[in-house]
Specification:
Length: about 475
């Protein structure tokens, strides 16, 4: 069976085609097939019409040269691995601070690329890359190494450059940072400056036919990860600790940290996940099949990893906002032993986003936080909320089913939180005054609910007939 793997960045795409070793794959027939025999490798670079192509030797040389040159560029310390003309098919040469020459000496010589050599019977190909293109190529290679189901026996060894030999200037660092949009490039920089030792390599473990994405990628292959891009990772909190960074895929992470199962907490996180993904999902047309993912979420709502559940999701992750929503370790404390919640995310062909706990709710969830329970106070707040919403709700409804919401107010009757209770309430929330009311107070529709004071909760129903109903909250149905 022909197998294809694709690792895409804005300025670079690696496409690998090959076969699965039947003797090795027999026991994993129901899992994602392993590409263990590379037949063809293609590297597409922005600005060039033809890809660089070649076989296994070309691809391995490309990987070594890219990794070695990235280390050299960030550290300003020469790395022979990037310039080995005698034994390597691929090498790099630095032209200036923002131009880098990629040279291919033998196989994989497509038409359409300029050649400058005059002495060789088969002249080398020379391609000039800017720094952004270079780091997209680094990231594509990084995605490959994170995929344990593609050439799992291929590994890369990066040696840290001794600090006393490093002469990297602040100018180089400033130059590299905007180009290195992926976290993996920061890992390369850390290795180059000897801030952390090389990441520990673990033997590959077979995974299900799911794609995993990660927030921290490393040029050394985290073999326990699954498909591209790879799952959650736990970076070292402080480089000075002299400990190796622990890289885990989503499955491994969930096996080593507690899982959030409390229904009430899951309900609150469910909303946070929806509020992150819903506004970021802008490409809602063109899906031929529903894309289903398994999400890992920290207790503060940070998305720490995802895995594709079906084949279409594995191929269509670029049509979702998930890669851009993974938490940034630079802006948040690292994921270590934090509890993780799991959710099922479905990007449907109709453009509707579905978010639900991966294992469902063990029991009916409750609203988190202190509550106003005095019947006289809640009765007055009930009427005040009705009047406020009624005065703000105008126009002819276009929905044909009841929109149901949970709405919470403080002791003064000011809206403190609102939550859609059915899918149609998600789809038509703009036809209600609730988001405007909330936004006027908190400056955002997706602001965290006010949990600093006791709240009174109500069920608010907007009917297609124009009727409004407000009743005391009796819990989730």
């Amino acid at each position: 069976m022909n197998i294809q793997r694709k690792y895409s960045l804005p300025n670079c795409t690696l496409l690998l085609e090959g076969l699965s070793d039947v003797t090795r794959a027999a026991q994993f027939q129901e899992m994602r097939p392993e590409l263990s025999i590379l037949v063809n490798a293609e590297c597409y670079l922005s600005g060039y019409n033809q890809p660089l192509t070649g076989g296994r030797e070309f691809f391995e040389s490309l990987v070594r040269a890219v990794s070695g040159y990235a280390q050299e560029f960030l550290s300003s310390v020469p790395n022979p691995q990037a310039h080995n003309q005698e034994s390597e098919l691929v090498e790099f040469q630095k032209i200036d601070s923002n131009r880098h020459r990629l040279i291919i000496h033998s196989e994989g010589a497509p038409e359409g690329f300029e050649s400058h050599s005059k002495n060789s019977k088969r002249p080398p190909i020379e391609i000039d890359l800017n720094t952004v293109q270079l780091f997209d190529l680094v990231e594509a290679v990084d995605q490959f190494f994170a995929d344990s189901q593609t050439l799992p026996e291929l590994s890369l060894e990066l040696q840290p450059v001794t600090r006393r030999y490093g002469g990297a200037s602040q100018a180089l660092i400033r130059q590299a940072v905007p180009a290195a949009v992926g976290v993996s490039s920061l890992a390369v920089a850390a290795i180059a400056f000897n801030l952390i030792p090389p990441p520990q390599i673990r033997p590959p473990q077979p995974k299900a036919d799911e794609q995993t994405s990660s927030t921290t990628k490393s040029l050394t292959p985290p073999a326990s990860a699954n498909t591209t891009p790879i799952a959650a990772a736990t970076p070292t909190p402080t480089p000075a600790a002299n400990t190796k960074p622990v890289v885990k895929d989503l499955e491994a992470l969930l096996n080593t940290v507690p899982e959030i199962t409390d229904p009430s907490q899951l309900r609150a996180l469910n909303r946070q996940v929806y509020n992150q993904i819903h506004p970021a999902w802008t490409k809602r047309s063109g899906l031929e099949q529903d894309l289903i993912y398994r999400l890992g979420v920290a207790a503060d709502g940070a998305i720490v990893g995802y895995k594709a559940v079906n084949k279409e999701a594995n191929q269509g992750v670029g049509q979702t906002p998930l890669p851009n929503l993974l938490y940034n370790p630079a802006n948040r404390a690292p994921i270590s032993n934090e509890p993780i919640a799991q959710f099922r995310i479905v990007f449907t062909t109709s453009g509707v986003l579905q978010v639900s706990p991966w294992r469902g709710y063990a029991r009916t969830p409750e609203v988190i936080g202190a509550k106003i329970t005095d019947s006289k106070i809640t009765k007055g707040l009930n009427q005040k909320l009705y009047n406020t919403v009624r005065q703000s709700w105008s126009g002819t409804p276009t929905f044909t089913r009841d929109l149901k919401y949970r709405v919470a107010v403080n002791k003064d009757g000011v809206i403190a939180d609102y939550e859609p209770l059915n899918q149609v309430a998600f789809d038509y929330f703009r036809e209600t005054p609730l988001p405007k009311m909330f936004n006027a107070i908190y400056g955002s529709n997706v602001a965290a609910p006010n949990a600093k004071e006791p709240l009174a909760h109500f069920q608010v129903i907007f009917k297609p007939s124009g009727t409004l109903e407000v009743t005391p909250w009796e819990g989730y149905q």
